[in-house]
Amino acid sequence: MTWTRNDFPEGFLFGAATSSYQIEGHGMGGAGPTHWDSFAATPGNVVRAEDGARACDHYTRWPEDLDLLRDLNVDIYRFSTSWARVLPEGTGTPNPEGLDFYDRLVDGMLERGLKPAATLYHWELPQPLADRGGWRNRDIAGWFAEFTETIMGRIGDRLWSAAPINEPWCVSWLSHFEGHHAPGMRDIRATARAMHHVLLAHGRAIEVMRGLGLSNLGGVFNLEWADPADPDNPADVAAAARYDAIYNRFFLGGVFQGHYPAEVLEGLEPHLPQGWQDDFATITQPLDWVGLNYYTRKLIAAAPGPWPGLTEVQGPLPKTQMGWEVCPEALYRFIMRVANTHAPDLPIYVTENGMANADRLQGGVIDDPERLAYLDAHLAQCRRAIADGADLRGYIIWSLLDNYEWALGYEKRFGLVHVDFESLKRTPKASYHALERALRRKGG
Ligand code: IFM
To answer: 147-174: buried (b, 16+ CB within 10 Å) or exposed (e) per residue?
Structure first.
């Protein structure tokens, strides 16, 4: 690492993140079925049809995982709560084992000096709610409010921060337009409704948490920079702007400005639910911070065919195991854009950043210089943004553990800690050890 904790402003926080379905082992502890289980069971959706039934068995191994976080010297643990573990039917009677699990987990974080940063929903929708239309059904805002009340009523008093929904773009566009994630739909009308309802549910959850007296509430947005494939071609420039509007400005604009970009309405307005304009009072509930998940940028070209009329083009930059270009500069641009345009008064956190790499255990060690270089380069852009006046307060790495990378199964390794998916043995990688040294506290 080319930096230490002391190169950041006093009080700047570091963390590591995971999510429930990706690590817990959904087959344990009385959790109900989710749309990810059905999606994974459908041939062709997920590499080797892998699912989250066992994952990293964090459900039983959580004390070891929290020890790893403590020993890494991070300040924050960003985790998520599984709706289907807490409410197996999606609404109604809670699963006491599920509530007890999160109760113990939060206490375990506090005992180890970690700040618990909860995300309520990281993608595993209870199947009974998917059966009722899932994110396409406006009632989801009420169902989500009930889940929020139930889980936050139990653990909310001990959280450092909370955010309703991880990555609204993935919940809606990736899952209903591109069909790459559960429920695997490819339908423009379903997409428009899911995009709007995910923001409505976000707003309802914020209202509920404020009502319960919780503070330090935020929103977590995944952002992807869009550059025109040919900057001299006006059609490509317009296509990149459409991509940016769909991916980034729809969600940030909805939550912070109370409107949707014209480039998106051009395609989706006829499919939005009736009276959508009236929901902005709920959607724009004031927040205490904004979280940015950033990984890559895309080169976008115009394409024939109906809206949005665009296609992705291979870029020239070095790529991660995901095939994603490494472009640290765009993280800087996003931090500055959010700081200057969308949320000028709010603290910003990078709530996810990291890379998948084909890490291999050799002679008991895992060398991952690629990950170190990736983290180094992105943290340099964070320091640049701070120097240029952005109120950036923290940086959270995806991910603590190698885990279930959704439709790509267990093959893509994002962890600072290697997981052997046969034995479930955890082995910290070289990047973990380097971070542990960089993050030592004064006198530590
Ligand atoms: O693994 C995912 C995570 O669930 C959400 N953000 C992006 C990560 C890497 O693809």
So the answer is: bbbbbbebbbeebbbbbbbbbbbbbbbb
Cβ–ligand 1 distance for 398 under 6 Å, the answer yes
Q: How do residues 59-77 score in pLDDT, each as one tens digit?
A: 999 999 999 999 999 999 9
Q: Is 352 a catalytic residue?
A: yes
**pTM of this prediction exceeds 0.90:** yes
> What spacing in Å lies between the alpha carbon of 309 and ligand 1's midpoint?
26
Q: Which atom of ligand 1 is nearest to the CA of 356?
A: 9
Is 329 one of the catalytic residues?
Answer: no
Write the CATH number for 416.
3.20.20.80
Range of the domain at 121: 5-438
CB 52 within 8 A of CB 21: yes
pLDDT digits (tens, 9 = 90+) for 302-360: 999 999 999 999 999 999 999 999 999 999 999 999 999 999 999 999 999 999 999 99
Domain-embedded: residue 443: no
Active-site residue, from 24, 50, 167, 224? 167
Q: Is 353 in the pocket of ligand 1 (CB under 6 A)?
A: no
